[in-house]
Design goal:
- The complex is a heterodimer of chains A (268) and B (387).
- Chain A is 38% helix and 17% strand.
- The two termini of chain A are 32 Å apart.
- By secondary structure, chain A is α/β, with parallel strands linked by helices.
- Chain A has a seven-stranded mixed β-sheet with strand order 3-2-1-4-5-7-8.
- The longest helix of chain A is centred in the last third of the chain and has 25 residues.
- Chain A is globular and about 50 Å long.
- Chain B is mainly alpha-helical.
- Chain B is built from 17 helices and 14 strands.
- The longest helix of chain B has 18 residues.
- Chain B is globular and about 55 Å long.
- The chains are: A alpha/beta (268), B mainly alpha (387).
- At the A-B interface, strand 9 and helix 9 of A face helix 8, strand 5 and helix 10 of B.
Chain lengths: 268, 387
């Protein structure tokens, strides 16, 4: 199976869940490392500035701190010594990396067309243009951190907590309309008392990585199911401002969230 | 018929000129005899306001009213002068709600504006909110995908550019010098548009933003139920309390408070009671703003005495913002009641209260027991004469 992994901002790309995905993918017997490629869009300085403006300095720093896992190491995976950057890890694993200004750049499209991926996994956190979506035979898979089709859009971990709903990670085959692709898998993400947003977010990332691996496994075994969405089944939520973010932080600080699981339940 | 609706309808008749087919910009009660000013462009806007109210009252069987006929007449006589984007939006609302044959043309005009983000950026909060109300109503009634898309696009634009999500207060406009300050009027129309959008498209995000926006504005209501006029959008403080308008107290605040009551927003019902009681002498000057004698009338506002009200307010607000202090109430001798009225006021009363069966203390005007209202004749006859 030929797999393209889409990502962005290579200087900052040090996320544990992405490293986990690459390492685990490389272990699969049905994967030839030469058939996997890491494709970067958003590599210019202006993309980093745009990202910094999007998240704000405080949030950006928080995000940077959480890159290698909230609260430090969480599992044996994180205790193993690995290269800091995803590109270095990919090189170590024998997986090629390619860099483009944008994923929609003609050079990137030409490269992907020539590579002929069966499937692409979107880990870029960015909008994927239709011309890219059309290239892989089985589409571009992406993870959405909330229950689909109910809760679409951005800042969805925060929105789930704000609306006092359980947190989910849903994988979908991306469509040109935001969060409207076919749903491929749905998994609940547990939260425990004392969790900060970064902790829940980190758990979502790991669930996303494991979900991607499972989907690729399912695709290989020919057992993938797709559930289509209708627009009226949910609403698109947009980014929160400080006013609502502080309410979410406060709810977590005060453990006022109805969907905690017990820390010793074995689910975490 | 509710006594409040009946009295407001009677008042509207005095504010109407059948020859011009317009409701007044300003009406004064000089010794009991009303004198009105019908000058453009506000009389156009207020006439559309009143049409929306009359349409609502007709729909709930308080009046018999040929809205389509009146709308035809108004557009024939004045249509070419309705150039403001917000007015077109409200007109689209009225046309779409009544399934008028003008709705498609009006929709095309409003949709064209939504496609031009440069022009949208030049509009103010009231204008974009009225456009959204119109598009939402048209999209809900017609179920046309292009109408739904236009409403979605405008909603997204407003959410992205007009709402300061750090304070949950919307900007009055996007120009730098005016951006820090917003008015109660604009906030009302913004929240009204959010509530309508949420209901029409079953949009959970819009509903949350509406409820949170209402929760935010409830924090500003004064001790006697008054709604401050001027707010600092960045530090979320009252920049000036005055003028305090009667229309805000009895009908415009209801454009968001009544939907908020229906959605179970805590404190909304109490805010409504405090808000309308302000008109019956429960205000800073202890003056009744709604009177029964010699005829039913509602005075416009309590404001600061003196000239250059707007520049002074702006200067005062800038100063208070610089020292990060909220505005205080002025001393009573500095204040006075503005005695004239405007037609959009009874228009919004009809719009807000016609569908309601609750808050009967107000809708039955129990705080104005001396009022006798005779059954009103129908304005539509007068309209038909002029066309």
């Amino acid at each position: 199976m030929r797999i393209a992994i889409l990502s962005s901002l290579p200087w900052l790309d040090r996320h544990s869940y992405k490293k986990f995905l690459l390492v685990e993918l490389a272990k699969k017997p049905w994967v030839r490392r030469s058939d996997v490629v890491l494709v970067y869009g958003g590599t210019k300085l202006s993309d980093y500035i745009k990202q910094a403006r999007r998240f704000g300095i405080a949030d950006g720093l928080k995000k940077l701190r959480s890159l290698s896992g909230a609260n430090g190491s969480r599992s044996t995976f994180h205790q193993e010594k690995r290269p800091n950057r995803l590109t270095s890890l990919a090189a170590e694993l024998g997986i090629a990396s390619r860099f483009f200004d944008r994923l929609s750049a003609p050079e990137c499209l030409s490269f992907l067309q020539a590579f002929r991926p069966d499937v692409a996994c979107n880990l870029s956190g960015q909008y994927i243009p239709s011309r890219v979506l059309a290239i892989p035979r089985h589409g571009v898979f992406g993870a959405h951190y909330a229950l689909l089709p109910k809760l679409r859009g951005g800042d969805t971990v925060r929105w789930s907590i704000f609306l006092d709903r359980p947190v989910f990670v849903c994988h979908m085959a991306l469509a040109s309309e935001m969060d409207m692709g076919d749903i491929l898998r749905t998994e609940r993400v547990p939260a425990v008392r004392g969790d900060r947003l970064e902790d829940i977010y980190y758990r979502c990332q790991m669930t996303s990585a494991k979900g991607h691996l499972q989907l690729l496994e399912d695709l290989e075994a020919g057992r993938m199911t797709r559930t289509s969405q209708r627009k009226e089944q949910g609403s698109l939520f947009y980014r929160m401002g400080r006013y609502l973010k502080s309410r979410v932080d406060q709810a977590l600080r005060e453990n006022r969230y109805s969907h905690y699981v017990e820390a010793d339940s074995g689910i975490i | 018929m509710l006594k409040l609706i009946q009295a407001s309808f009677s008042l509207l008749q005095k504010m109407y000129d059948p020859k011009r087919a317009l409701f007044s910009h300003t009406t004064d009660l000089n010794g009991g005899k009303p004198t009105s000013d019908f000058s453009y462009p506000l009389s156009l806007r207020y006439t559309i306001n009143v049409l929306a109210g009359l349409q609502r009252a007709q729909e709930h069987r308080h009046l018999r009213w040929d809205v389509d006929g009146v709308l035809d007449c108004f557009l024939r006589l004045h249509g070419q002068h309705v150039t403001n984007a917000g007015d077109k939006g409200l007109l689209l609302y009225v046309a779409a709600h009544g399934h008028s044959n003008h709705e498609h043309r009006l929709f095309a005009e409003v949709r064209d504006l939504v496609g031009q983000s440069g022009r949208l950026r030049e509009l103010n909060l009231q204008e974009v909110s009225w456009m959204l109300s119109g598009l939402t109503e048209y999209a809900a009634a017609s179920e046309k995908p292009e109408a739904v898309r236009a409403a979605e696009d405008l909603f997204r634009f407003i959410d992205r550019y007009f709402l300061n999500k750090d304070t949950m207060l919307p900007f009055h406009c996007l120009s730098l010098w005016r951006k820090p300050f917003t008015t109660f009027g604009g906030i009302v129309y913004f929240l009204k548009a959010l509530a309508e959008y949420a209901a029409a498209f079953n949009n959970a995000y819009a509903e949350v933003m509406f409820k949170e926006g209402v929760g935010k504005i409830l924090e500003f209501q004064g001790p006697q139920g008054e709604w401050p006029w001027f707010y600092n959008v960045f530090d979320s403080k009252v920049a000036d309390w005055y003028p305090i308008y009667s229309v805000h107290q009895d009908s415009m605040a209801m454009l968001f408070l009544l939907p908020a009551v229906d959605l179970g927003v805590g404190g909304a019902a109490q805010a409504i009671e405090k808000s309308y009681r302000w008109l019956f002498g429960n205000n800073q000057l202890g003056t009744p703003m709604m009177v029964a004698s010699p005829d039913f009338f509602i005075y416009r506002c309590i404001h600061r005495r003196g000239s250059l009200e707007r520049p002074k307010r702006f200067g005062r607000s800038l100063l208070l913002s610089a020292i990060r202090k909220p505005a205080r109430f002025a001393a009573n001798p500095q204040l006075e009641v503005v005695m004239h009225g405007r037609s959009y006021h009874p228009g919004w009363i009809l719009f807000s209260w016609s569908p309601r069966k609750d808050f009967t203390e107000f809708t039955d005007l129990r705080m104005l027991p001396e009022l006798n209202v005779s059954a009103p004749s129908q304005i539509c006859h007068a309209f038909e004469e002029s066309c």
